[in-house]
Amino acid sequence: MNSASSRSRTLKTVGALGMAAAAAVLMTGCGQSSDSATSAATSEAAKVVPQKQTTSPSASAALTEDQQERKKVLDATKVTFDDAATTATGEVAGGKLVDLDLEGVDDDDRESPSPTATGSPTGTASPTGTASPTGTASPNGTSSPSASPGAEGPVWVAEVAEKDGTVHTVRINAVDGKVIEARVDADQDADDKKETADRLAQATQTPQQAAKVATEKKKGTVTSVSLDDNEGNGVIWQVDVVGSDWKKTTFDVDAKNDTIIREETDND
After folding, report:
1. Which position among 61, 103, 116, 236 has the lowest Cβ density within 10 Å, counted as fewest Cβ atoms?
2. Any idea what DSSP says for residue 143?
3. Which one is predicted more confidently, 154 or 120?
4. SS3 34
5. Closest by CA position to 130, among listed 150, 152, 116
6. How far is 204 from 100, CA to CA, in rounded Å?
């Protein structure tokens, strides 16, 4: 009796231990399966979701050297083309604007005489060059040289012609709008004056009207306007517009009817 009871208890104990072991194996298997499923899901998600970039290129790094220079000059410029044109013509009695250029923006491009060349927006070089004095001057041509050009910031350089074609150069501070210098160009001869007077006589549209046509075609800032010959087919206003991407587009606008004849974008 006692021996049978003892064997019964032993069998129950062994059975319980066996069930416990089986349960442990099942739980371990489920845990491994769950961990494997989680790991696989994470791996698949990693393939779909792109890794976050730790660094991003700066906006200025994407700009060319010319674009960076345009941005630098235009960020510092406070006086618009229209205001500079009004100030310049006010320095010459009865004068008309024939050229207005913001110094420091594509100056090298302006040396080419061809209006259709890829880099020449106006076909004329800066009338004052790099050695022009920047002292305060009166309209009669007298001036007192002071700091080097551009020392006071960006400068508008204008050419304003009298009725007979005599050209005056007027330099205007592009930050405060004050006249830095106004003088008669000394290297003009009778032929130069006649050519200028003839072009002005043919131009029935103003530079302001040409600038408006150009900026309606491309939103941006006018940095240069110049009256030029259209290869013997009348006269044109050449207008440079710098857009928000800091690229420059040059428009050739018919000076009689405001029609855009040509346009070219400089991607540099």
Report:
1. 61
2. B
3. 154
4. helix
5. 150
6. 18
